[in-house]
Amino acid sequence: MTPTATYRLQLQPDFPFSAAAAAVPYLASLGISHLHLSPVLEAVPGSVHGYDVVDHSRVREELGGEAGLRELSRTAREHGLGLVLDIVPNHMAAAPRHNHALWGVLREGPGSPYARWFDIDWEAGGGKVLLPVLAGRIGDELSGMRVDGDVLHYGEQRFPVRASTAELPLPELLDAQWYRLAWWRLARTELNYRRFFTVSDLIGLRVEDPEVFDATHTKILELVHDSVVEGLRVDHPDGVADPAGYLRRLDQATGGACWIVVEKILTGDERLPAGWPVAGTTGYDALRHVDGLFTDPDGAKQLAERYREFAQPSADRGGRWAATARRAAYKVVTHELAAETAALGRLARRICAGDPALRDHAPWALRAAVRELLVRVPVYRPYLLDGEAALTEAAARRAKETFAVTDEATAVDVVRDLALGRLGEGPDHTAFRARFAQTASALRAKSVEDTAFYRYTPLLSANEVGGDPGSPALAPDDFHGYCTRLARDWPATGTVLTTHDTKRSADVRARIAVLSECPERWAEFLPRITEAAAGLEGGRAPDPHLAWVTWQTAVGFGVPRADRLEPALLKAVREAGLRTSWTEADAAYERAVAAFVDAGPAGPPLYYVAEFARELDPYVRANVLGATLLHLTMPGVPDVYQGSERQFLALVDPDNRRPARLGEPLPDRLDELRGRRWLSDEKLALTATALRLRRARPDLFGSSGTYAPLRAHGPAAGHCVAFGRSGRVLTAVTRLSLRLEQSGGWRETALTLPEGGWSDLLDPGRTFTGGSAVRLSDLFADRPVALLIHGDASEAAAGTG
Predict the structure, then answer these.
(1) Residue of 10, 291, 379, 776 with fewest CB within 10 Å of its CB?
(2) Does pTM top 0.90 for this prediction?
């Protein structure tokens, strides 16, 4: 069953299945069709996210176990709801104490039946698995180790002892194991197992192996076949060796009757591979298109200029977006992903050594070619379907320009052709192709999302997964083109505005985006607030880049709170890696950051921040309501993140993953809620109205529904985005409302409605006559958005409240 709308719940020990079950009546009254649950399989004890799976055969006991999940499913069905599960095929927790499969590999080595589960380069590790778990060099950590029977203890960690070695002296015992305990810093250069991005605590899975697929999916498939689960969200498919093959196997195993979406990040004009047997993506592409509508292109450029003047960033510190992203890619590929790049170099060298036509390519040239091509892959993963687009001749030509000797630059052609599958089909060729693609996706995520987004910060609302901070604005025609393609090709794809991974919730981004409409106000406010804070102890920012980011974040949050602002900003400076980092922390700098947050945006100057934020409230309201309505009525299946049906102000995780606090069931009639003018209530009323409409009339929004752009005419036509769904529903929203006000308002701008009578679902009793122009000043008289239905609202959309 294809959902009409899903609602994401972040399960954790403080919000288990029983808490989700208690929320079902409220969620059913909201109008969703499915609960979207974060991972439910057994994870590292205490995990607040569940992506660190340790046992695929069991439902997590800390959440209530399988009995609790099945009871939640029964409760949901009683209220007309289904379940969608988040599954994690790419990796497990590298925690031997809890991961019995990894324990077996470490105890028995490459002969273990579990050895095929993981991508381990035994040769590179000298026959051992490197485990970078020690706090210091091993010579300094021996005193903290002890052997008890067949278990090696190190602090809270446990490791198996190889048979017949338990009686050896500790140094000899360590040398006799199938693993090598090492200082955590060695992961960067010596790690010999595939991991998730740069997280050594998560070890990659080989789900391309049929036996591994079966072992890791049996429980999930059982839940699907028992109708406990009706949909699956596939986490990070770019990480598996063969995404298309994996998805085909998953589709076949579920019987083709399961709604499946993939967390595939599409870059620019990149399209989802048409042959994948999925409903679509999880929706970051939709987020980018919606957010872009509420960003003023001219104002964004002015903010970028102001940013360069104020922060004075160098080329690798946020001066220009393209240069920042490229330098960040070089940093990650040569440091954080050095082990992965070296592994590709070894594979390329081995392939060339076995081919007479290729054996004269120098190892260093092959390694350099791998590096130079990786940093130029313009998407997350160069799928073979469209490999030519992902590894263009232009990219290869630019990579060759980095070589001093032309003859040695031909190594780029070799690496490119290996990555695209043009140079043979041996095991090493297949492995290179997969590992290059897997490394490319990790590089893109770490260099763009987790580095460049924190270095280039003119407009923080644009720095979201899948976005383009260098060109953040989107024209209405581009939005319509995107929606037309979705309705035609991927009508059941997922769409989102806020997720457990967004750096800022949609409502925070909506407020920040208004700054693109008033860069001159921001330019006046920033030095004023900087001066006000500088007079306080600790109130002077450690550097101007941090000051810009902090004050913009504070404005986005509205009324800053130190307990939530400080962790997000510390994460930001560590991810940027300019003055401190996760691995090379500058304690003095980080103390200065904390002091600045306490004295500045969370200190007395917060009143100035709150005042400035209040001035933006009318335009924030237009952005919030407009983005919400577009999300809920555009093609695709909207996913509502927990709590975001009301005003939801959240920063990067873990702030956005706090346990949900949900209310009582909503009344059948929403009249009282619609009459309130608090933004939170307005947003809730709008969300419930749209979701109930989708549930009552799935024919208007599903695979058989249509999408038709409607264009206003008049002097302010560009400030209206409108479209029809299946000829029966009409959405209209206001964009760039501050610019609209500055230009004189709607004036004579009008929208011609399709023939017939139209009723306003957000304001029952208001009707419009189609076939003639309706002035937008009338359509948007009470609110900046309108949701109209053809005919009488009470008859045509029964159940919407």
Answers:
(1) 379
(2) yes
